[in-house]
Amino acid sequence: DVKVTQSSRYLVKRTGEKVFLECVQDMDHENMFWYRQDPGLGLRLIYFSYDVKMKEKGDIPEGYSVSREKKERFSLILESASTNQTSMYLCASSSPLTGNTIYFGEGSWLTVV
Amino acid sequence: GESVGLHLPTLSVQEGDNSIINCAYSNSASDYFIWYKQESGKGPQFIIDIRSNMDKRQGQRVTVLLNKTVKHLSLQIAATQPGDSAVYFCAEKYSGNTPLVFGKGTRLSVIA
């Protein structure tokens, strides 16, 4: 089974802090994604990556950056956390071999106070 | 702009009844559609998918119908069970190497 692991399930950070959300997948997938999920807004794509050291902006990249130094790991970075970044963050991965299906992690709940 | 949306944000059904969750899409170039189920506190899980060259696809207790004429997608769940209670998301993929675009989700509540 595909396993996408998000290292932190629940985080509380202060405004202005730098926040790292880590994601690791164990299926050698080329593609990785970070989504943010808010009530009534569904899943919105922040950044994605189709290969190591590559990154593409999604629909809402402002206030975020990403890092993909290794194929299995995709990190989401909030350079200076703000209260409007309080949300659930979902990491996902896929491969051309899996077709268009993407596999999600369990999510990271971030609260910025 | 192009978007994926849902007709009903919440749906309540009696246990044992069939459920139908609807989704509208606006990008006629989309060539792939997928449904995900998200239980409380968990990440979305794949349910079923369909390509644009198909009208219907069946899985275990689930059926996805695609009507390209009116750009409409539906998920049918037969004999709905309490374990089906979740939020359901549809997603579309534009042609080419592009990420999935998700709708806002429908909450399905099963009444025992």
Textual characterization of the structure:
The complex is a heterodimer of chains A (113) and B (112). The model of chain A has no long low-confidence stretch (mean pLDDT 94). Chain A has no helices and 12 strands. In chain A, a hairpin with a 3-residue loop joins strand 5 (31-38) and strand 6 (42-49). Chain A is mainly β and 113 residues long. In chain A, 0% of the residues lie in helices and 51% in strands. Chain A is globular and about 40 Å long. In chain A, strands 2, 5, 6, 7, 10, 11 and 12 form a 7-stranded mixed β-sheet that branches. A 3-stranded antiparallel β-sheet of chain A has the order 3-9-8, with no helix packed on it. In chain A, strands 1-4 form a two-stranded antiparallel ribbon. Chain B is mainly beta and 112 residues long. Chain B has no helices and 11 strands. In chain B, the strands form 2 sheets. In chain B, strands 2, 4, 5, 9, 10 and 11 form a 6-stranded mixed β-sheet that branches. A 5-stranded antiparallel β-sheet of chain B has the order 1-3-8-7-6, with no helix packed on it. In chain B, strand 7 (62-67) and strand 8 form a beta hairpin. The A-B interface holds A 4, 33, 35, 40-45, 48, 50, 58, 90, 92, 99-107 and B 9, 32, 34, 36, 41-46, 49, 89, 93, 97, 99-105.
The structural class of chain A is mainly beta
Helix content bin of chain A: under 10%
**How widely separated are the two ends of chain B?**
40 Å
Largest interface: A-B, 23 and 21 residues
Major β-sheet profile of chain A: 7 strands, mixed
Shape of chain A: globular
Largest sheet of chain B: 6 strands, mixed
Number of strands of chain B: 11
User: What is the helix fraction of residues of chain B, given as a range?
Assistant: under 10%
